[in-house]
């Protein structure tokens, strides 16, 4: 209202709606809504945190929400990647915690504001912490049960059959072999599972039950698995090992369980023509395995192993092995044939 419209000596009446107020000396304020009873670790500077939030002004006016995008907000904390008030307010939280963080403008978007946030506005963030980790974290293993005889432990090269439930730290179930009614089978150390899972299955005995917590850099990383695992998610695997078949020494795909015949080539070359074809070679190796005299690496395609063994022996690539080409592993270290 222009001053010329106000009569002299007039008493003025103003109806005021107070939207918010703050003092330049104000810090953030934190109100804990839900704090889990079991809080083994609180967030600290340098952690990577995934959380949901609703953002409003002090009068309740909505301005943003991660829920509306159906994905968490993910950030490092304590390092300036978010506004100063949130950077501070996200320190010291527990996984699963819900808290309200009130941020004065000088620790938020300042006098200019941003987007639909007015200048000099006090901001209210209601957050729910989904999980967090530190890039220096390794896996965490908690063993819940070990059988009385737990002397044979899993190692690289062993063939394992196990059940698992996979979930997020907030309990969201991702996958379960129990629900599928079949085990998950791998060769340990062969890259068939994420690195954290491979680490978590080491030194485990048949019948043991354990929980393995895997940070994203040892799991599915920032990308996650589309439609299955969120990006940068910490994973929880509840595992029961059901079967272990001992692997072979590193570098071997086939071994002899006893003395090797001094006339090995002649035994393989059944027709005595001085040449071994793939069919002869395969028949002989499988017969040794069936009789217990030899062993193929468990968990791999047996035919592919035998074919690779034959190819290594067939040095000139003509589809047949001669006595001159034929060598055992200890006779030529760079090959893994026999």
Describe this structure in words.
This protein is an alpha+beta fold. The protein has three domains: 29-133, Chitinase A, domain 3, CATH 3.10.50.40; 140-245, Chitinase A, domain 3 (Roll); 254-328, Recoverin, domain 1. It is 14% helix and 26% strand. The protein contains six helices and 14 strands. It has helices at residues 84-89, 177-180, 195-200, 264-268, 278-291, 302-313, and strands at 29-34, 48-57, 62-65, 73-76, 98-103, 123-133, 140-145, 159-168, 173-176, 184-187, 209-214, 235-245, 254-256, 294-296. Strand 8 (159-168) and strand 9 form a beta hairpin. Helix 5 (278-291) packs across helix 6 (302-313). Mean pLDDT is 92; it is low at 333-337. Keywords: Calcium, Endoplasmic reticulum, Glycoprotein, Isomerase, Metal-binding, Repeat, Rotamase, Signal. PPIases accelerate the folding of proteins during protein synthesis.
Total count of helical runs of at least 4 residues: 6
Rg, Å, rounded? 33 Å
Q: Mind telling me the CATH class of the largest domain?
A: Alpha Beta
- Provide the number of structural domains: 3
**Low-confidence parts lasting 5 or more residues at pLDDT below 50?**
333-337
SSE ordering: EEEEHEEEEEHEHEEEHHEH
What is the general shape?
A: elongated
Structural class: alpha+beta
Question: Which helices and strands appear, and what pairs or packs with what?
Answer:
Elements: E1 29-34, E2 48-57, E3 62-65, E4 73-76, H1 84-89, E5 98-103, E6 123-133, E7 140-145, E8 159-168, E9 173-176, H2 177-180, E10 184-187, H3 195-200, E11 209-214, E12 235-245, E13 254-256, H4 264-268, H5 278-291, E14 294-296, H6 302-313
Function: PPIases accelerate the folding of proteins during protein synthesis.
Domain EF-hand: 256-291, 301-336
Enzyme class: isomerase
């Amino acid at each position: 209202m222009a001053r010329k419209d106000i009569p002299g000596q007039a008493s003025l009446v103003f109806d005021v709606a107070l939207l918010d107020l703050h003092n330049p000396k104000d810090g953030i304020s934190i109100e804990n809504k839900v704090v889990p009873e079991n809080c083994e670790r609180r967030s600290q500077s340098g952690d990577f945190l995934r959380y949901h939030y609703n953002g409003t002004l002090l009068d309740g006016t909505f301005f943003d929400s991660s829920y509306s995008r159906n994905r968490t907000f993910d950030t490092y904390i304590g390092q300036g990647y978010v506004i100063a008030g949130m950077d501070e307010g996200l320190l010291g939280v527990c996984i699963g915690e819900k808290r309200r963080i009130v941020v004065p403008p000088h620790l938020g978007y300042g006098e200019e504001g941003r987007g639909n946030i007015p200048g000099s506005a006090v901001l209210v963030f209601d957050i729910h912490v989904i999980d967090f980790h530190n890039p220096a974290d390794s896996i965490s293993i908690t063993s819940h049960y070990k059988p009385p005889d737990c002397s044979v432990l899993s190692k690289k090269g062993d063939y394992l059959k196990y059940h698992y439930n996979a979930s997020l730290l907030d309990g969201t179930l991702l996958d379960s072999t129990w629900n599928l009614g079949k085990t998950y089978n791998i060769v340990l150390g062969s890259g068939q599972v994420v690195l954290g899972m491979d680490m978590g299955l080491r030194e485990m005995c048949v019948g043991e039950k354990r929980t393995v917590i895997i940070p994203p850099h040892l799991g599915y990383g920032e990308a996650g698995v589309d439609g299955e695992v969120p990006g940068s998610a910490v994973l929880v695997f509840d595992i029961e090992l059901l079967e272990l078949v001992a692997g072979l020494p590193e570098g071997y795909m086939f071994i002899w369980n006893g003395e090797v015949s001094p006339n090995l080539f002649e035994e393989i070359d059944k027709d005595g023509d001085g040449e071994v074809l793939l069919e002869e070679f395969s028949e002989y190796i499988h017969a040794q395995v069936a009789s217990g005299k030899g062993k193929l690496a468990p968990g791999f395609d047996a035919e592919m192993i035998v074919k690779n063994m034959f190819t290594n022996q067939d040095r000139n690539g003509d589809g047949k092995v001669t006595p001159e080409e034929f060598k055992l592993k200890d006779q030529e270290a760079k090959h893994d044939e026999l």
